[in-house]
Write a structure and sequence with these properties.
Layout: E1 5-8, E2 11-14, H1 28-54, H2 60-93
Antiparallel strand pairs: 1-2
Helix pairs in contact: 1-2
């Protein structure tokens, strides 16, 4: 018998499968909300560093890294959104 793959917030590994969510634990919507808040925070940090650089302070290298990190986070969020919309549309096309 093969060992099931375990997927958890800590990562992917071998072992037992993930247990069902416990009562009161964060669900998919909560996790998605947290991820979107993290993307928003990265965007705000990039904007703040860009504003500081425009005012004559800050470090160009750190600002460029912050803006690139914000860009990657946003592109990833858009790809996840597109995958979720595609999955929703696929479920809606199913004949039940």
């Amino acid at each position: 018998m093969t060992t099931p793959i375990r997927i958890s917030p800590e990562g992917i590994g071998l072992g037992q499968t993930s247990p069902a969510p416990k009562a009161g634990s964060a669900g998919f919507a909560d996790e998605l909300g947290k991820a979107l808040q993290a993307v928003d925070q990265v965007q705000k940090e990039g904007d703040a560093q860009a504003a500081q650089l425009a005012l004559g302070g800050g470090n160009l290298h750190e600002t460029a890294l912050a803006l690139e990190t914000a860009d990657v986070a946003m592109r990833t969020a858009v790809k996840v959104r597109n995958k979720l919309v595609d999955a929703y549309q696929e479920v809606m096309r199913m004949n039940l």
